[in-house]
Amino acid sequence: MIVLILWLLFPAAAFAARPLITDDTGTLGKGKFQVELGFEASDHRTDDEGAVTREYGTSVTTTVSYGLLDNLDILLGAPWEKTRIREDGETVHNENGFADVTLEAKWRFFEKEGFSLALKPGVSFPTGNDKKGLGTGRVTYGMIFIATKEMEPFTFNLNAGYRRNENDTDERKDIWGADLAGEVRVFKPLKLVANVGIVTNTDRESSVAPSFFLGGLIYSVTDNIDIDLGYKRGLNKAEPDNTYIGGVTIKF
């Protein structure tokens, strides 16, 4: 059950350039909009002394961003989640609905010779039903530090962050995370991407920090429309085994 909760609360906390989890320092520019539509499907299998549990999760997220200044964006995210748990072939949990809405800002405060730094504070609101496992039941808040280095055709992004996980379910409240991503432009419309990361386990009874590897691609249909595909693999049993990612990003 803890894997399912982690997947719900931190599916794409940074709202990075899809399909990456790690964000970059890029901003839209004053007066510009961006809409990201994303889909994720995950599965996880555990075997505890012969008792097999299978967990399935689906997430559909809409993120709208707006450039307040050339170096300052605001982002509003609204996720819809579906979760199902089967124990020895019997369904013991099956819920769906909207999860907690997030509001974030990204401020790029330094930029020189292809290297840039940004801060991304954010807050989530308890719009999801925490009794169904679709939210925390309280307002949470946090901050992500972002560093980006561009060396054509490569780009590297590093994130380190903290989230105060206020909740009504006796989870850990101090959540730390770090992740690293790389991109390479194969040719003008196509980028290949890779991502690794780790985050504090919210389960007080576990010291295993969920970690992952992600690989994917971004294809630019036009200068303003990108489509993405990705696959995320859990590197330990605290992370879902497999997560399949797809989406589209539209700028205007």
Question: What does this protein structure show overall?
Answer:
- This protein has 252 residues and is mainly beta.
- It has a single domain (2-251), classed as Lipocalin, CATH 2.40.128.130.
- It is built from one helix and 13 strands.
- It has a twelve-stranded antiparallel β-barrel with strand order 1-2-3-5-6-7-8-9-10-11-12-13.
- The termini are far apart.
The beta-strand count equals 13
Poorly predicted residue ranges: 1-14
State the domain count. Answer: 1
Give the class-level CATH name: Mainly Beta
Helix content: under 10%
**Order of strands across the biggest sheet?**
1-2-3-5-6-7-8-9-10-11-12-13
Following the backbone from N to C, one meets helices and strands in this order, namely: HEEEEEEEEEEEEE
Number of helices: 1
Q: Strand count, sense and closure of the main sheet?
A: 12 strands, antiparallel, barrel
**Cα-based radius of gyration, to the nearest Å:** 18 Å
Query: For this structure, what is the CATH homologous superfamily?
Result: Autotransporter beta-domain
**Which fold does the CATH topology refer to?**
Lipocalin
CATH architecture: Beta Barrel
What is the overall silhouette?
Answer: globular
Arithmetic mean of pLDDT: 92
Distance between the termini: 40 Å
**β-sheet strand percentage:** over 45%
